[in-house]
Amino acid sequence: MREIIRVIVCCWVAWGLLVLRGLPPHAFAGSRSDVAPERFTGIQVEWGGHARVIGTFTTVADDSLYDQVDAGPYIDGQAEWRQKNRLSIGSQWTMETHYELVASGGDTRQTDQTLLDQFPGSSSSSIFINPPMDDDRRLFDLTHVLTETDDTLIYHRLDRLNLTWSPDWGTVRLGRQALTWGDGLVFNPMDLVSPFAPTTVQRDYKTGDDMALVQLPVGQSDAQLLYLPRRDPQTGEVKTDVSSYALQYHTFAGPIEASAIAACHFDDIIGGLGASGYLGDAAWRINTVYTHLSSERSENDFFQVVANLDYAWLWGAKNVYGLLEFYYNGLGRRDDYQQVLDNKALMERLLRGEMFTLGRVYLAGQLQLELHPLVQLQALTIFNLSDPSGLLQPQIQWDLVSDWQLILGAQWHWGADGTEFGGFDVTTDTLAFESTPTDQVYLWLTVYF
């Protein structure tokens, strides 16, 4: 049934886009015209997107999970095409569609496939292996694999497909969309839906999810109500205990911007408070999130806290930006990361892509320097303060010509044996390896249209 729905939706969207492509220019006029047919009055269409190629060179550590298959180095590539369409009908209705075509392959995928074949269904290995994109948990399956081999994957999908109604009293948006809550800039515990990883290279698009969102103005404040149905990957059925229901209230108290969230998320109860403001010319933000785990969890309830301060200034004639962020995760480990595999609540969040680290206390810093109006140099660093260990991610961004952008960067990890980023031993009934993050150099080339 899900496959039939996916095919129908894809065909309907493709047909609609082709029809709109063929309409005469006057059909998209924003006001009534004597020449335009009345049925097209008030229709506006916007097109955009990008094409991108990504290359990576990766080294793996001795005795790591990947080293057991191939000592490397690994060379990988990926090509992306994203076609965006925004269709506005009058002043109250908008439809947004994003189509993605992605081709990827190389040594890493080939090794991933070998490991998954050796350890099928092993959740302990899943957090160390990059899973392919799928819609197993989403309400609609809008992802389809075109070609798949041991070292190559080509698929296409709809990453946005939503309809927005904007009456006088608020906004209602239904369908596949992206939503961001919270004030964290590196770590963001208040962002419940497909948050970015701290080391994400480009944050122009979040992965879309199928949800219903209602936004209501309340005086000078506003409230957002979210319902995100999910399927159980094992049965394919929509279930309450894997879905999300959430409310955010956002307001101002003098110079302070404040927000509060309440959610039932994967059967856990979550409450959060956030505030932001200015300290001189610097901006500060703080979010606190409390999670009450369902009765089926053996772990205790926990807090997460993120606080950051960022500031922009001139150094000589150069623009400089600096960020400092503190993150506390009460579910993380202070040491002995081997026990992470026995922490069901943390493992589930790692597998769902909601948490990205194993420790408890972190300090992140970012520095950006404008070498030229078209050239930005930046570096991100993350420290696990309990180990200590950490990572460094320097990169240079160059706007080559209009709509062309090149990013060259690297990611390097450091730390002693037994630390999170330096590497620690993992032993299960089926696996024995050293969990050491891979170091890599990457190149991104994007053209926007």
Task: Report what the structure shows.
- By secondary structure, the chain is mainly beta.
- 10% of the residues lie in helices and 52% in strands.
- It has an 18-stranded antiparallel beta barrel. It has a two-stranded antiparallel sheet with strand order 19-20.
- The protein is globular.
- The model is unreliable at 1-38 (pLDDT under 50).
Question: What percentage of amino acids are in beta strands?
Answer: over 45%
Q: How much helical structure, as a percent, in the residues?
A: 10-25%
Number of strands: 21
The tally of helices reads 4
Q: What radius of gyration results from the CA coordinates? A: 23 Å
Order of helical and strand elements: HEEEHHEEEEEEEEEEEHEEEEEEE
Describe the global form.
globular
Largest sheet: 18 strands, antiparallel, barrel
Structural class: mainly beta
Overall residue-averaged pLDDT value: 88
Give the low-confidence spans. Answer: 1-38
- The end-to-end distance, rounded to whole angstroms, is 36 Å
